[in-house]
Amino acid sequence: MKKLALHWQILIGMVAGVVFALIMANIDWGKTFIVNWIKPFGTIFINLLKLIAVPLILASLIKGVSDLKDISKLSQMGGRTIITYLITTVVAVSIGLAIVNIIQPGYSITEDTRNELVESYKGDADSRIAQAEEQKNAGPLKALEDLVPSNIFKAASDNGNMLQVIFFAIFFGIGLILIPENTAKPVKQFFDGFNEVILKLIDLIMLAAPYGVFALLAALIVESPSADLFLALAWYAICVVIGLILMIFFYLLIVWIFTKKSPKFFMNGMSPAQLLAFSTSSSAATLPVTMERVEEHLGVEEEVTSFVLPIGATINMDGTSLYQAVAAVFIAQAFGMHLDLATQLGIVATATLASIGSAAVPGAGMVMLVIVLAQAGIPEAGLALIFAVDRPLDMCRTVVNVTGDASVSMIVAKSVGKLGEPKVKNWDDNYQH
Protein backbone atom coordinates (compact mmCIF):
# COMPACT_ATOMS: atom_id res chain seq x y z
CA MET A 1 0.00 0.00 0.00
CA LYS A 2 1.37 3.39 -0.96
CA LYS A 3 2.29 5.59 2.00
CA LEU A 4 0.25 8.76 2.43
CA ALA A 5 2.04 11.99 1.50
CA LEU A 6 3.14 14.09 4.48
CA HIS A 7 0.66 16.89 3.77
CA TRP A 8 -2.22 14.41 3.89
CA GLN A 9 -0.87 13.01 7.16
CA ILE A 10 -0.76 16.54 8.60
CA LEU A 11 -4.31 17.27 7.46
CA ILE A 12 -5.50 14.00 9.01
CA GLY A 13 -3.67 14.88 12.23
CA MET A 14 -5.34 18.28 12.21
CA VAL A 15 -8.86 16.86 11.76
CA ALA A 16 -8.21 14.08 14.28
CA GLY A 17 -6.96 16.60 16.84
CA VAL A 18 -10.08 18.74 16.46
CA VAL A 19 -12.46 15.75 16.62
CA PHE A 20 -10.63 14.22 19.59
CA ALA A 21 -10.72 17.51 21.50
CA LEU A 22 -14.42 18.07 20.81
CA ILE A 23 -15.20 14.59 22.14
CA MET A 24 -12.97 14.93 25.20
CA ALA A 25 -14.38 18.38 25.99
CA ASN A 26 -17.70 16.70 26.80
CA ILE A 27 -16.08 14.41 29.37
CA ASP A 28 -15.44 15.66 32.90
CA TRP A 29 -11.77 14.70 32.94
CA GLY A 30 -11.24 15.21 29.19
CA LYS A 31 -9.72 18.70 29.29
CA THR A 32 -7.34 17.76 32.10
CA PHE A 33 -6.27 14.64 30.19
CA ILE A 34 -5.45 16.62 27.04
CA VAL A 35 -3.60 19.36 28.94
CA ASN A 36 -1.53 16.88 30.97
CA TRP A 37 -0.99 14.04 28.50
CA ILE A 38 -1.47 15.40 24.96
CA LYS A 39 -0.38 19.04 25.01
CA PRO A 40 3.23 18.23 26.10
CA PHE A 41 3.81 16.45 22.78
CA GLY A 42 2.80 19.62 20.96
CA THR A 43 5.22 21.58 23.13
CA ILE A 44 7.97 19.09 22.30
CA PHE A 45 7.27 19.56 18.60
CA ILE A 46 7.48 23.37 18.94
CA ASN A 47 10.75 22.94 20.88
CA LEU A 48 12.15 20.78 18.09
CA LEU A 49 11.40 23.56 15.58
CA LYS A 50 13.07 26.10 17.85
CA LEU A 51 15.99 23.73 18.42
CA ILE A 52 16.81 23.51 14.73
CA ALA A 53 16.45 27.24 13.99
CA VAL A 54 20.00 28.37 14.82
CA PRO A 55 21.75 25.42 13.13
CA LEU A 56 19.53 25.91 10.07
CA ILE A 57 20.48 29.59 9.82
CA LEU A 58 24.20 28.88 10.21
CA ALA A 59 24.23 25.95 7.77
CA SER A 60 22.02 27.39 5.02
CA LEU A 61 23.24 30.97 5.18
CA ILE A 62 26.97 30.21 5.31
CA LYS A 63 26.54 27.74 2.46
CA GLY A 64 24.43 30.19 0.45
CA VAL A 65 26.86 33.10 0.87
CA SER A 66 29.98 31.00 0.28
CA ASP A 67 28.44 29.58 -2.91
CA LEU A 68 28.72 33.09 -4.34
CA LYS A 69 32.45 32.52 -4.96
CA ASP A 70 31.72 32.86 -8.68
CA ILE A 71 30.80 36.46 -8.00
CA SER A 72 34.44 37.36 -8.68
CA LYS A 73 33.96 36.15 -12.27
CA LEU A 74 30.36 37.24 -12.59
CA SER A 75 30.47 40.33 -10.36
CA GLN A 76 28.00 42.30 -12.44
CA MET A 77 25.52 39.43 -12.57
CA GLY A 78 26.08 38.53 -8.91
CA GLY A 79 25.50 42.04 -7.63
CA ARG A 80 22.34 42.53 -9.66
CA THR A 81 21.04 39.12 -8.64
CA ILE A 82 21.45 39.72 -4.91
CA ILE A 83 20.05 43.26 -5.04
CA THR A 84 17.04 42.20 -7.10
CA TYR A 85 16.32 39.26 -4.80
CA LEU A 86 16.48 41.52 -1.75
CA ILE A 87 14.18 44.10 -3.37
CA THR A 88 11.54 41.51 -4.28
CA THR A 89 11.71 40.06 -0.75
CA VAL A 90 11.21 43.47 0.86
CA VAL A 91 8.25 44.05 -1.50
CA ALA A 92 6.77 40.67 -0.50
CA VAL A 93 7.08 41.37 3.24
CA SER A 94 5.64 44.87 2.78
CA ILE A 95 2.64 43.50 0.85
CA GLY A 96 2.05 40.95 3.59
CA LEU A 97 2.19 43.57 6.34
CA ALA A 98 -0.10 45.93 4.42
CA ILE A 99 -2.77 43.24 3.89
CA VAL A 100 -2.74 41.92 7.46
CA ASN A 101 -2.93 45.46 8.86
CA ILE A 102 -5.85 46.32 6.58
CA ILE A 103 -7.90 43.13 7.12
CA GLN A 104 -6.73 42.57 10.74
CA PRO A 105 -7.79 38.91 10.95
CA GLY A 106 -6.53 38.45 14.51
CA TYR A 107 -8.82 41.14 15.88
CA SER A 108 -11.90 39.15 14.83
CA ILE A 109 -11.24 36.98 17.88
CA THR A 110 -13.49 37.95 20.79
CA GLU A 111 -12.09 39.55 23.92
CA ASP A 112 -12.86 36.46 26.02
CA THR A 113 -10.96 34.16 23.66
CA ARG A 114 -8.09 36.61 23.49
CA ASN A 115 -7.92 36.80 27.27
CA GLU A 116 -7.81 33.01 27.46
CA LEU A 117 -4.92 32.94 25.00
CA VAL A 118 -3.06 35.68 26.86
CA GLU A 119 -3.62 33.92 30.18
CA SER A 120 -2.36 30.62 28.77
CA TYR A 121 0.94 32.21 27.77
CA LYS A 122 1.09 34.97 30.40
CA GLY A 123 4.62 34.18 31.53
CA ASP A 124 5.94 34.36 27.99
CA ALA A 125 4.07 37.60 27.32
CA ASP A 126 5.31 39.24 30.53
CA SER A 127 8.94 38.60 29.60
CA ARG A 128 8.34 40.10 26.16
CA ILE A 129 6.72 43.19 27.69
CA ALA A 130 9.76 43.66 29.94
CA GLN A 131 12.03 43.41 26.90
CA ALA A 132 9.89 45.97 25.07
CA GLU A 133 10.23 48.41 27.98
CA GLU A 134 14.00 48.04 27.84
CA GLN A 135 13.97 48.81 24.13
CA LYS A 136 11.90 51.96 24.68
CA ASN A 137 14.59 53.34 26.98
CA ALA A 138 17.41 52.53 24.53
CA GLY A 139 19.19 55.02 22.27
CA PRO A 140 18.37 55.55 18.57
CA LEU A 141 21.25 53.33 17.38
CA LYS A 142 20.62 50.56 19.88
CA ALA A 143 19.17 48.28 17.20
CA LEU A 144 22.31 48.68 15.08
CA GLU A 145 24.49 48.12 18.13
CA ASP A 146 22.61 44.94 19.04
CA LEU A 147 23.05 43.59 15.51
CA VAL A 148 26.73 42.79 16.15
CA PRO A 149 27.23 40.07 18.79
CA SER A 150 30.08 40.14 21.29
CA ASN A 151 29.87 36.36 21.68
CA ILE A 152 28.44 34.17 18.93
CA PHE A 153 27.83 31.26 21.32
CA LYS A 154 25.80 33.49 23.63
CA ALA A 155 23.86 34.87 20.64
CA ALA A 156 23.16 31.36 19.37
CA SER A 157 21.77 30.32 22.77
CA ASP A 158 18.70 32.58 22.40
CA ASN A 159 16.36 32.59 19.40
CA GLY A 160 15.58 36.20 20.23
CA ASN A 161 19.11 37.11 19.11
CA MET A 162 18.69 35.57 15.69
CA LEU A 163 19.68 38.74 13.81
CA GLN A 164 23.07 38.47 15.51
CA VAL A 165 23.38 34.87 14.30
CA ILE A 166 22.42 35.97 10.78
CA PHE A 167 25.03 38.74 10.91
CA PHE A 168 27.72 36.25 11.96
CA ALA A 169 26.71 33.75 9.27
CA ILE A 170 26.89 36.40 6.52
CA PHE A 171 30.19 37.71 7.89
CA PHE A 172 31.61 34.19 8.06
CA GLY A 173 30.42 33.42 4.52
CA ILE A 174 32.10 36.58 3.19
CA GLY A 175 35.32 35.50 4.91
CA LEU A 176 35.13 32.15 3.11
CA ILE A 177 34.80 33.93 -0.23
CA LEU A 178 37.79 36.19 0.38
CA ILE A 179 40.35 33.56 1.43
CA PRO A 180 42.11 31.30 -1.12
CA GLU A 181 39.85 28.61 -2.53
CA ASN A 182 42.11 25.73 -1.44
CA THR A 183 42.09 27.04 2.13
CA ALA A 184 38.33 27.58 2.14
CA LYS A 185 37.52 24.23 0.54
CA PRO A 186 37.61 22.01 3.69
CA VAL A 187 35.60 24.57 5.68
CA LYS A 188 33.06 24.86 2.89
CA GLN A 189 32.84 21.07 2.59
CA PHE A 190 32.14 20.92 6.32
CA PHE A 191 29.26 23.39 6.06
CA ASP A 192 27.95 21.68 2.91
CA GLY A 193 27.82 18.42 4.89
CA PHE A 194 26.47 20.24 7.95
CA ASN A 195 23.71 21.70 5.79
CA GLU A 196 22.77 18.24 4.49
CA VAL A 197 22.56 16.93 8.06
CA ILE A 198 20.31 19.83 9.11
CA LEU A 199 18.02 19.25 6.11
CA LYS A 200 17.76 15.59 7.09
CA LEU A 201 16.94 16.59 10.68
CA ILE A 202 14.15 18.79 9.33
CA ASP A 203 12.85 15.77 7.40
CA LEU A 204 12.83 13.78 10.65
CA ILE A 205 11.13 16.56 12.60
CA MET A 206 8.47 16.93 9.91
CA LEU A 207 7.72 13.21 10.22
CA ALA A 208 6.42 14.10 13.68
CA ALA A 209 4.35 16.98 12.30
CA PRO A 210 1.03 15.04 12.13
CA TYR A 211 1.36 14.12 15.80
CA GLY A 212 2.54 17.61 16.74
CA VAL A 213 -0.42 19.16 14.92
CA PHE A 214 -2.78 16.69 16.61
CA ALA A 215 -1.49 17.65 20.05
CA LEU A 216 -1.37 21.40 19.37
CA LEU A 217 -4.90 21.59 17.96
CA ALA A 218 -6.37 19.30 20.61
CA ALA A 219 -4.92 21.54 23.33
CA LEU A 220 -6.02 24.67 21.50
CA ILE A 221 -9.61 23.42 21.20
CA VAL A 222 -10.06 22.49 24.87
CA GLU A 223 -8.30 25.61 26.13
CA SER A 224 -9.97 28.02 23.73
CA PRO A 225 -12.97 26.36 22.07
CA SER A 226 -14.50 29.53 20.62
CA ALA A 227 -15.61 29.31 17.00
CA ASP A 228 -14.37 32.85 16.35
CA LEU A 229 -10.80 31.53 16.60
CA PHE A 230 -11.37 29.37 13.53
CA LEU A 231 -13.10 32.20 11.69
CA ALA A 232 -10.01 34.33 12.34
CA LEU A 233 -7.86 31.48 11.05
CA ALA A 234 -9.84 31.45 7.80
CA TRP A 235 -9.32 35.20 7.44
CA TYR A 236 -5.60 34.69 8.10
CA ALA A 237 -5.41 32.13 5.27
CA ILE A 238 -7.27 34.53 2.97
CA CYS A 239 -4.75 37.28 3.82
CA VAL A 240 -1.83 35.03 2.87
CA VAL A 241 -3.44 33.88 -0.38
CA ILE A 242 -4.31 37.45 -1.41
CA GLY A 243 -0.72 38.50 -0.72
CA LEU A 244 0.69 35.62 -2.75
CA ILE A 245 -1.59 36.42 -5.69
CA LEU A 246 -0.47 40.06 -5.58
CA MET A 247 3.17 38.89 -5.63
CA ILE A 248 2.49 36.86 -8.78
CA PHE A 249 1.05 39.98 -10.43
CA PHE A 250 4.09 41.94 -9.23
CA TYR A 251 6.43 39.43 -10.93
CA LEU A 252 4.44 39.58 -14.16
CA LEU A 253 4.58 43.38 -14.07
CA ILE A 254 8.34 43.67 -13.54
CA VAL A 255 9.05 40.97 -16.17
CA TRP A 256 6.90 42.89 -18.66
CA ILE A 257 8.55 46.23 -17.76
CA PHE A 258 12.16 45.03 -17.87
CA THR A 259 12.05 42.31 -20.55
CA LYS A 260 8.96 43.24 -22.61
CA LYS A 261 7.80 39.62 -22.35
CA SER A 262 4.05 39.19 -21.92
CA PRO A 263 2.49 37.66 -18.80
CA LYS A 264 1.04 34.89 -21.01
CA PHE A 265 4.51 34.04 -22.34
CA PHE A 266 5.94 33.88 -18.81
CA MET A 267 3.12 31.82 -17.30
CA ASN A 268 3.05 29.36 -20.21
CA GLY A 269 6.77 28.80 -19.81
CA MET A 270 6.68 28.41 -16.02
CA SER A 271 3.41 26.56 -15.41
CA PRO A 272 4.91 23.02 -15.21
CA ALA A 273 7.48 24.17 -12.64
CA GLN A 274 4.78 26.00 -10.70
CA LEU A 275 2.60 22.89 -10.57
CA LEU A 276 5.55 20.80 -9.40
CA ALA A 277 6.36 23.41 -6.75
CA PHE A 278 2.75 23.26 -5.57
CA SER A 279 2.80 19.47 -5.27
CA THR A 280 6.23 19.15 -3.62
CA SER A 281 6.33 22.33 -1.48
CA SER A 282 10.08 22.39 -2.19
CA SER A 283 12.00 24.94 -4.24
CA ALA A 284 15.01 22.62 -4.17
CA ALA A 285 13.08 19.64 -5.53
CA THR A 286 11.63 21.86 -8.26
CA LEU A 287 15.01 23.44 -9.16
CA PRO A 288 15.91 21.07 -12.06
CA VAL A 289 12.53 21.67 -13.71
CA THR A 290 12.74 25.41 -13.02
CA MET A 291 16.15 25.60 -14.70
CA GLU A 292 14.92 23.63 -17.72
CA ARG A 293 11.81 25.78 -18.16
CA VAL A 294 13.65 29.09 -17.73
CA GLU A 295 16.40 28.12 -20.15
CA GLU A 296 14.41 26.22 -22.77
CA HIS A 297 11.07 28.05 -22.67
CA LEU A 298 11.87 31.57 -21.42
CA GLY A 299 15.08 32.11 -23.39
CA VAL A 300 17.52 32.70 -20.50
CA GLU A 301 21.05 31.52 -21.33
CA GLU A 302 22.58 28.69 -19.29
CA GLU A 303 25.29 30.95 -17.88
CA VAL A 304 22.58 32.91 -16.08
CA THR A 305 20.28 30.04 -15.06
CA SER A 306 23.13 28.01 -13.55
CA PHE A 307 24.10 31.00 -11.41
CA VAL A 308 20.89 32.84 -10.56
CA LEU A 309 18.43 29.97 -9.96
CA PRO A 310 20.48 27.86 -7.48
CA ILE A 311 21.16 31.02 -5.47
CA GLY A 312 17.47 31.87 -5.65
CA ALA A 313 16.50 28.44 -4.31
CA THR A 314 18.68 29.23 -1.29
CA ILE A 315 18.17 32.91 -0.55
CA ASN A 316 15.04 34.04 -2.42
CA MET A 317 11.93 33.01 -0.47
CA ASP A 318 9.44 35.78 -1.24
CA GLY A 319 6.36 33.66 -0.61
CA THR A 320 7.79 32.44 2.68
CA SER A 321 8.72 35.98 3.76
CA LEU A 322 5.23 37.28 2.95
CA TYR A 323 3.64 34.46 4.92
CA GLN A 324 5.94 35.09 7.89
CA ALA A 325 4.96 38.77 7.98
CA VAL A 326 1.23 37.96 7.87
CA ALA A 327 1.57 35.16 10.42
CA ALA A 328 3.60 37.26 12.87
CA VAL A 329 1.13 40.15 12.90
CA PHE A 330 -1.87 37.78 12.97
CA ILE A 331 -0.50 35.96 16.03
CA ALA A 332 0.25 39.30 17.71
CA GLN A 333 -3.32 40.46 17.00
CA ALA A 334 -4.70 37.19 18.35
CA PHE A 335 -2.82 37.78 21.61
CA GLY A 336 -4.05 41.36 21.81
CA MET A 337 -0.60 42.82 21.11
CA HIS A 338 -0.19 46.09 19.23
CA LEU A 339 2.90 46.17 17.03
CA ASP A 340 4.25 49.68 16.46
CA LEU A 341 5.91 50.83 13.25
CA ALA A 342 9.43 50.13 14.54
CA THR A 343 8.52 46.54 15.42
CA GLN A 344 6.92 45.96 12.03
CA LEU A 345 9.99 47.40 10.29
CA GLY A 346 11.95 44.92 12.38
CA ILE A 347 9.73 42.17 10.99
CA VAL A 348 10.58 43.38 7.46
CA ALA A 349 14.31 43.17 8.24
CA THR A 350 14.13 39.85 10.07
CA ALA A 351 11.86 38.14 7.54
CA THR A 352 14.06 39.37 4.68
CA LEU A 353 17.29 38.17 6.28
CA ALA A 354 15.76 34.95 7.60
CA SER A 355 14.54 34.10 4.10
CA ILE A 356 18.18 34.09 2.98
CA GLY A 357 18.84 31.18 5.30
CA SER A 358 15.54 29.41 4.79
CA ALA A 359 16.12 25.91 3.45
CA ALA A 360 14.29 25.08 0.23
CA VAL A 361 12.40 22.16 1.78
CA PRO A 362 8.87 21.67 3.18
CA GLY A 363 8.45 22.93 6.73
CA ALA A 364 11.50 25.21 6.79
CA GLY A 365 9.29 28.30 6.60
CA MET A 366 7.68 27.36 9.92
CA VAL A 367 11.13 27.05 11.49
CA MET A 368 12.11 30.49 10.21
CA LEU A 369 8.83 31.92 11.53
CA VAL A 370 10.06 31.07 15.02
CA ILE A 371 12.93 33.49 14.37
CA VAL A 372 10.61 36.29 13.22
CA LEU A 373 8.29 35.81 16.20
CA ALA A 374 11.14 35.79 18.71
CA GLN A 375 12.73 38.90 17.24
CA ALA A 376 9.39 40.79 17.34
CA GLY A 377 8.63 39.71 20.90
CA ILE A 378 5.59 37.63 19.92
CA PRO A 379 4.93 34.38 21.87
CA GLU A 380 6.25 31.48 19.80
CA ALA A 381 3.46 29.32 21.19
CA GLY A 382 1.18 31.22 18.80
CA LEU A 383 2.43 28.83 16.11
CA ALA A 384 -0.35 26.56 17.30
CA LEU A 385 -2.86 29.03 15.84
CA ILE A 386 -1.64 28.69 12.26
CA PHE A 387 -0.32 25.15 11.98
CA ALA A 388 -3.68 23.80 10.88
CA VAL A 389 -3.56 25.60 7.54
CA ASP A 390 0.21 25.77 7.12
CA ARG A 391 0.61 22.88 4.70
CA PRO A 392 -1.74 24.12 1.93
CA LEU A 393 -0.33 27.63 2.36
CA ASP A 394 3.18 26.16 2.15
CA MET A 395 2.25 24.68 -1.23
CA CYS A 396 1.02 28.08 -2.42
CA ARG A 397 4.01 30.07 -1.18
CA THR A 398 6.43 27.62 -2.82
CA VAL A 399 4.80 28.48 -6.15
CA VAL A 400 5.58 32.14 -5.44
CA ASN A 401 9.17 31.31 -4.44
CA VAL A 402 9.81 29.48 -7.72
CA THR A 403 8.03 32.14 -9.78
CA GLY A 404 10.16 34.81 -8.14
CA ASP A 405 13.38 32.93 -8.98
CA ALA A 406 12.35 32.68 -12.63
CA SER A 407 11.33 36.34 -12.95
CA VAL A 408 14.59 37.57 -11.41
CA SER A 409 16.61 35.32 -13.71
CA MET A 410 14.89 36.89 -16.73
CA ILE A 411 15.50 40.43 -15.45
CA VAL A 412 19.17 39.72 -14.69
CA ALA A 413 19.62 37.99 -18.07
CA LYS A 414 18.13 40.98 -19.86
CA SER A 415 20.41 43.37 -17.97
CA VAL A 416 23.57 41.48 -18.99
CA GLY A 417 22.49 40.70 -22.56
CA LYS A 418 21.84 37.00 -21.94
CA LEU A 419 18.10 36.87 -22.73
CA GLY A 420 17.22 35.50 -26.15
CA GLU A 421 14.48 33.56 -27.82
CA PRO A 422 13.28 30.32 -26.19
CA LYS A 423 14.79 27.12 -27.56
CA VAL A 424 11.43 25.36 -27.27
CA LYS A 425 8.22 27.21 -27.99
CA ASN A 426 5.27 26.80 -25.67
CA TRP A 427 2.41 24.52 -26.68
CA ASP A 428 -0.02 27.25 -27.67
CA ASP A 429 2.68 29.00 -29.72
CA ASN A 430 3.91 25.96 -31.59
CA TYR A 431 1.14 23.42 -31.83
CA GLN A 432 -1.90 25.42 -32.82
CA HIS A 433 -2.77 24.91 -36.49
Architecture overview:
The protein is built from 20 helices and no strands. It is mainly α and 433 residues long. The chain has a single domain, classed as Proton glutamate symport protein (Orthogonal Bundle), CATH 1.10.3860. α3 packs across α16 and α15 crosses α19. The radius of gyration is 22 Å and the shape is globular.
Structure in a nutshell:
The protein is an all-alpha fold and about 425 residues long. Helix content is about 80%, strand content about 0%. Helix 3 runs antiparallel to helix 11 (about 225-260) and helix 15 crosses helix 19.
- What radius of gyration results from the CA coordinates? 22 Å
Which of globular, elongated, flat, extended, rod-shaped describes the shape?
globular
What is the total domain count?
Answer: 1
Q: Which residue ranges are poorly predicted, with pLDDT under 50 across at least 5 consecutive positions?
A: 427-433
CATH architecture: Orthogonal Bundle
Distance between the termini: 44 Å
Oligomer: single chain
Element pattern in H and E: HHHHHHHHHHHHHHHHHHHH
CATH class: Mainly Alpha
What class would the helix/strand composition place it in? mainly alpha
Largest sheet: none
Throw out a few tags for this protein.
433 residues, mainly alpha, Proton glutamate symport protein, globular, disordered C terminus
